[in-house]
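Worked example

This section walks through a single chain of length 332. The input is the sequence exactly as stored; nothing has been trimmed or padded.
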Amino acid sequence: MPFPPPKKPEFKFIDLFAGIGGIRLAYQNLGGKCVFTSEWDSFSKKTYEANFGEVPFGDITKIDEKDIPDHDVLLAGFPCQPFSIAGVSKKNSLGRKHGFLDETQGTLFFDIARILKHKRPKTFMLENVKNLVSHDKGNTFKVIQNTLKELNYSIYYKVLDGKYYVPQHRERIIIVGFDNEYFKGEENFEFPELKEVKHSVKEILLPKVEDKYTLSDKLWSYLQEYARKHRAKGNGFGFGLTDLNGISRTMSARYYKDGAEILIPQKGKNPRRLVPRECARLQGFPDNFVIPVSDNQAYKQFGNSVVSPLMQAVGEKVVEQLKQFSNGFDKP
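Given that input, the structure is written out below as tokens.
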């Protein structure tokens, strides 16, 4: 088990929609002990177990919030399913409940809300795609903010780019909240100051890579023709031949299909896709992170994951606030 919990933990956290544990890794590095984790994907659970020695619980919608252990920090890289605040007046006319529980019903964010309501962790950190802010003309994010505020948490959010920590352009929204009953509104939280650091893709490349990662003539021809057609139409679609001295595009979960968004140029032959270990490095995972699944599953997992060092930088600021308050931690 490469990443056991700390022997003398300083705080407790739970890891929801855990994926392969990129956020857990960050908070474990900060001295936290994970007391509960949830992830439904069987392949991700396999990777998680290989690295942390625990099999996550499954579908969060089937888990009773009363069964979740007490914790200081709730962490969740939650998937955002579309939802809207439309229809509240209709529910009023039918005499049905609305407000935060009903507005978010049917979405996975609801599961975070019910756990926050029941367990009252001192703080939380949520991660999602940048587009969450603008989805449904801003209504989706408005519901999320209102829900968290109704639960009596003060909210801080910011879109942050992973390129300050790894050679990848990857913008994500981070939402941090503090329990007003505990902090009394006196927390002094600020997101980390992102300092311009020159990262380059060549830092994460392996010296030798098997030929199977080089694109076939057929696939390479297809990608070039696809890009040419879209350029003729004035679209920006196409493959990304990466500048090895610069940063890459955002790696997505579809990387397993053809690797088109991040292709590595090679002298005298077709470009190649990244190997799974390079994908892990591109997300800031250490080299002792075990990859026990097939290449295709690994591509999906790292494409869905987080820039772990960025999560840790935000986590440092969260934990700093916990340490400043006299009640201290709920010692594990």
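What to look for: Residues 201-302 form a domain with the DNA Methylase; Chain A, domain 2 fold (CATH 3.90.120.10).
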